[in-house]
Amino acid sequence: MAPPRDVVKIAVQKRDAIPQLIQLDQAKPLAAVLKEVCDAWSLAHSERYALQFADGHKRYITENNRSEIKNGSILCLSTAPDLEAEQLLGVLQSGGREGRREALQQLVLLAPDMTFAQEVISREGLQKLGTIIEDGDDLGEELALALQAFLELMEHGVVSWETLSIPFVKKVIRYVNMNLMDASVQPLALRLLESVTLSSPTLGQVVKSEVPLDRLLVHLQVMNQQLQTKAMALLTALLQGASPVDRKHMLDYLWQRNLRQFIYKSIIHSAAPLGDEMAHHLYVLQSLTLGLLEQRMRTPLDPYSQEQREQLQALRQAAFELEGESPSAGLSADRRRSLCAREFRKLGFTNSNPAQDLERVPPGLLALDNMLYFSKHAPSAYSRFVLENSSREDKHECPFARSSIQLTVLLCELLRVGEPCSETAQDFSPMFFSQDQSFHELFCVSIQLLNKTWKEMRATQEDFDKVDKLWFCCLSPNHKVLQYGDVEDGASPPAPESLPEQLPVADLRALLTGKDCPHVREKGSLKQNKDLCELAFSVSYDHGEEEAYLNFIAPSRQEFHLWTDGLSTLLGSPMGSEQTRLDLEQLLTMETKLRLLELENVPIPEQPPPIPPPPTNFNFCYDCSVTEP
């Protein structure tokens, strides 16, 4: 007969005793279970004992977590958490050096358990650990264990970090600033200061004023990866707690001290793998640095600002006036204004007054900063961009200013400029740490690629509104019509009947792939567009007396195979994709194996065999994660 659902079979261990195999009734009070276990070993006063999981975490069993006990679990009988806490704290207060060390080791082992932590905290355990840390009689293992136990207890959130005293925090800061210090102490001290900085603005100011940035840079440059990570954690915590003005000053100083180059060469490209925690802190550093651009991004151009008007004129002059020459010299004021307005139009501003284009936020003044940076740091590419497009037909010219404004908005969205830091994200970009002005450099590369793509696809200004849209196509439910049209990026797939364009399947003539597609041939060199070429396909159809094409670029190889096979089927042609070949090969292999079974007189049933009933119990289950002592 199967045991009741509430009964689990477990083992209970005790030092210097034979383990008990018992059936634990989960409906019975834990105190009653504990008394039965103690009685089996002839132990009086069962209230002085408790059950723990035997794994490395040593968590105490309570009424709240007893449901985690499963068949095959191994528990151990130990001292009750209140007595254990009292004994350990007593040793800390009056024991010898070796006794304190062993008590601290036991505290570190048990402190992650909430039940035990509450008992320690209620007996002023944090104050006693704080005394050991402040006294600093032993700057080695004992101090490291005290710091670790203190951190484990504080991280339960029972006591606020704001309750720590300033002298205590300054003592921990002293450990961080000391040159000769045990390697196990400083990472823990940095971790404690990080938590203080993130949790208490008042104590965070103490940390900021007492821990020099140069000291953190020293810790970052050691070979100890754990110390590096904790130093980076405190650095990002200080940056997060600083005001925007202070943050800018701090980052400027760090960049002057070559922190960016060090991160790029010695952390990102280190021989040792980058840990998840360090990756998160690099993401935070990247996010905070890009966040400095938010003010410019959200500030529109002020038409009454003399400085901003001069910047616009500098942008125009860099494109149309040779060095030392001024074509507008000697002209009347009206002629000069007319000439400037025409040149601003050639630059790609949509309004005769360029200030109106830059009133949009975002990108605000950040777009102007990008354009000025491009004109100053890549003057040849800038002049070539503007003059090249000035000589094209009006409908095919790529407007530099309009493109720059749109591109700046897109870069801000992709890099999440101005968004708060995620608490878990790790997606930093190594490119960000490879350049001093990474955002502006990224713009310079992107604007030139945009111009190149514009030329290859012979785009017109009407295409601007299509750039942010996706092209969606699907087969109608009756398989008679291809329905397609533009949809917004991020929108859910539209209903087929809502798409504006239709192409009857009966009008389809042929399927083209790769370099035979007209939209691939128009894009120039096939070598430069190899990836695009491999995912491109088109269908030709009759459009009046002319042959027209519906062009596609699949997002992946799998999508390419599915669509080309589907269109081939609609056209009555054989499916010729690589995926079809693999599927057929798998089916043929299976068919061959089945035929070989028939040759061996192995009967193959027409119906699958019935599923057997479940066993009467599951006592064979065993938790492999539980380690036996």
Automatic annotation (TrEMBL):
<dbReference type="InterPro" id="IPR024574">
    <property type="entry name" value="ELMO_ARM"/>
</dbReference>
<dbReference type="InterPro" id="IPR006816">
    <property type="entry name" value="ELMO_dom"/>
</dbReference>
<dbReference type="GO" id="GO:0007015">
    <property type="term" value="P:actin filament organization"/>
</dbReference>
<dbReference type="InterPro" id="IPR011989">
    <property type="entry name" value="ARM-like"/>
</dbReference>
<feature type="domain" description="ELMO">
    <location>
        <begin position="307"/>
        <end position="479"/>
    </location>
</feature>
<dbReference type="Pfam" id="PF11841">
    <property type="entry name" value="ELMO_ARM"/>
</dbReference>
<dbReference type="GO" id="GO:0048870">
    <property type="term" value="P:cell motility"/>
</dbReference>
<dbReference type="GO" id="GO:0006909">
    <property type="term" value="P:phagocytosis"/>
</dbReference>
<dbReference type="GO" id="GO:0017124">
    <property type="term" value="F:SH3 domain binding"/>
</dbReference>
<dbReference type="InterPro" id="IPR011993">
    <property type="entry name" value="PH-like_dom_sf"/>
</dbReference>
<dbReference type="GO" id="GO:0006915">
    <property type="term" value="P:apoptotic process"/>
</dbReference>
<dbReference type="InterPro" id="IPR050868">
    <property type="entry name" value="ELMO_domain-containing"/>
</dbReference>
<dbReference type="Pfam" id="PF04727">
    <property type="entry name" value="ELMO_CED12"/>
</dbReference>
<protein>
    <submittedName>
        <fullName>Engulfment and cell motility protein 3</fullName>
    </submittedName>
</protein>
<dbReference type="InterPro" id="IPR016024">
    <property type="entry name" value="ARM-type_fold"/>
</dbReference>
